[in-house]
Write a structure and sequence with these properties.
Order of helices and strands: EEEEHEHHHEEEHHHEEHEEE
Structural class: alpha+beta
Number of strands: 13
Radius of gyration: 18 Å
Helix content: 10-25%
Shape: globular
Length: about 300
């Protein structure tokens, strides 16, 4: 990663009295190859990642202390904040410690916990960039996805995630299906170790080597994949270690325009339209306007 001292991060507004509002864009892994397991237990990867306009929002008060977490007021996306680590184990707290800074942080979650979209990593990266720290070693010490989230845009990612080579930006649109549950990343990698690289049950040409392992950890994933494919007529791919599924295209192209909620066996999931964003992207709105939903309430689809 090349430091850029002219831009300390996605600063999108000020809440007054020295409070700075930061956007933390989600990441989508559009291709993922797991090469091998290293002696230290980590895995070497070969991946392409892109940043999305789906954001968490951090309001940072340099004169304060402590972390408070809220769900976005619209509740349109199941952020599952109850599953988020608290206290010193939260990635925001760890990032502040890594840069030897204290601040009061109000974190408003829109990126679902356990969704494979790098929400915690994006939050940590926002703190690093706010602090002017673009050191890849510091970032990788916090998590495998944090180095990419610091860089943003589109990139080729290798090693255990610490080698990030920016690629030219490509404008792409996706529809995400977010099930009402998360998947534990560590458990998925343990399953990959057990199943091996040629695990049965995954279609040839899959863009994600973790798909079969994730389904073995959380079998409910399969039914949600089928639902998205039936709705859109497109082949769905798993985001990272799950639980989010995605297809490429706009809602109108995929025939799901106006649908924001889907139901499967009495459980509710969310359909969310997103687009890729370039490095140093700033949302159209400043500050707390980001806390409102960008998606108007839509229709529901019930698969029974």
């Amino acid at each position: 990663m090349t430091p850029d001292t002219g831009n300390k991060g996605k600063v999108v507004g000020s809440g007054g009295s020295g409070v700075v509002v930061l956007a933390a864009p989600a990441k989508l892994t559009v291709s993922l190859r797991v090469l091998d397991r290293r002696p230290d237990g980590y895995h070497n990867l070969d991946a392409e990642m892109v940043a999305l306009d789906l954001c968490d929002v951090l309001e940072v008060d340099p004169s304060g202390d402590g972390l408070r977490v809220e769900t976005a007021a619209d509740g349109a996306i199941p952020s599952r904040v109850a599953d988020l680590p608290r206290g010193s184990s939260n990635l925001v707290s760890r990032a502040l410690s890594a840069v030897r800074r204290t601040a009061g942080v109000l974190l408003t979650k829109r990126i679902p916990v356990g969704g494979g979209l790098g929400g915690g990593s994006a939050d940590a990266a926002a703190i690093l960039r706010w602090a002017g720290c673009l050191d890849p070693q510091v970032a990788s010490g916090l998590g495998a996805d944090v180095p990419f989230c610091v860089v943003g845009g589109r990139a080729h990612v290798t090693g255990v995630g610490e080698v990030v080579r920016p690629l030219p930006y490509e404008e792409r649109t996706f529809v995400l299906l977010i099930p009402p549950f998360g998947v534990d990343t560590a458990a998925v990698y343990r399953a990959w170790d057990r199943l091996g690289p040629d695990a049965p049950g995954e279609a040839p040409g899959s863009s994600n080597d973790l798909t079969a392992a994730a389904i073995s950890v959380e079998p409910r994933l399969e039914a949600w994949r089928r639902l998205l494919e039936e709705l859109t007529g497109a082949r769905a791919a798993l985001a990272g270690s799950g639980a989010t599924w995605y297809v490429e295209g706009s809602p109108s192209e995929l025939g799901v325009e106006g649908i924001s909620t889907v139901t499967l066996g009495g459980a509710h999931g969310s359909l969310v339209a997103v687009r890729t964003v370039p490095q140093w992207w700033e949302p159209e709105a400043a500050g707390t306007r980001l806390l409102r939903s960008r998606t108007a309430p839509g229709a529901a689809f019930d698969a029974g």
